[in-house]
Amino acid sequence: MQDKFIQFSQFLSYVLRHKPESISLTLNTEGWVSVDNLLLQANRHGKKLTREILEYVVENNNKKRFTFNDDHSQIRAAQGHSTQQVRLNHVSQTPPKFLYHGTATRFVDSIRQQGLLAGNRHHVHLSDNIDTATRVGARHGNPIVLVIEAQKMVELGYLFYLSDNHVWLTEHVPAQFIQQS
Ligand code: HQG
Fold first, then answer.
1. Which residue of 25, 35, 94, 148 has the fewest C-beta atoms within 10 A of its own C-beta?
2. Ramachandran region, residue 157 (left: φ > 0; alpha: ψ -120 to 50; beta: rest)
3. DSSP labels for 81-126?
4. Which of 74, 69, 1, 16 has the alpha carbon at shortest distance from 47?
5. Which of 117, 128, 172, 173 most suits a substitution to test ligand 1, by most atoms within 8 Å of the C-beta?
6. What are phi and psi of 165, to 5 degrees?
């Protein structure tokens, strides 16, 4: 994607996940906002976002971070929210036996003590494949992939959710479910 579109994508992440109020937007609890209102408020706040640019960014975003409803009158971020306006009412799903979490080696000691914490986000983010987890971990430094015993967690009543863009989410992964490598 050209730089211009990456900037719009980052802007959308900011307003649809973290700070909708920065451009006077209110998201519903499922994260949706009307496209007309998003375009209006973005332009009022100096971002020359058009419907065409929005369609392009949603379609070409490398991680499918944004989702339109059927008639493209509404949009939301698929996951990664920190704003308190949103409480995604995901339906819980059964994950594969193992899920993967990519992180940086410097976090591992702390993770092995505390388990995986959601931090600023609403959930811990997990992948169903090692490649994706490695890429996620590399964002933070020297990557390492932790193997999560998802099926064991389910058997003990922990809930998992699958986002629109196929990220597995859960609230907390206690250390006992992280395999020793
Ligand atoms: C680490 C991207 C110390 C955790 C990706 C991670 C993902 C701990 C960092 C999505 C810890 C948080 C999420 C503990 C967790 N002690 N460190 N107890 N528990 N951590 O960015 O999972 O580009 O909030 O390992 O593709 O890296 O936003 O989470 O390294 O799907 O669409 O704390 O973000 O997607 O970092 O990434 P993040 P993440 P987007």
1. 94
2. left
3. ---TT----PPB-PPPSEEEEEEEGGGHHHHHHH-B--TTSSSEEE
4. 16
5. 117
6. -105, 30
- Span from the CA of 2 to the centroid of ligand 1 (angstroms): 26
- Which ligand 1 atom lies nearest to the CA of residue 80? 28
Q: How many angstroms is it from 17 CA to the middle of ligand 1?
A: 15
* 36 CA to centre of ligand 1 in angstroms: 32
Q: What is the pLDDT along the chain (181 residues), one digit of tens a residue?
A: 778 899 999 999 999 999 999 999 999 999 999 999 999 999 999 999 999 999 999 999 989 999 999 999 999 999 999 999 998 888 899 999 999 999 999 999 999 999 999 999 999 999 999 999 999 999 999 999 999 999 999 999 999 999 989 999 999 999 999 998 7
Global pTM value: 0.86
- Digit-coded pLDDT (tens) for 15-25: 999 999 999 99
Cα separation, 97 vs 51, whole angstroms: 41
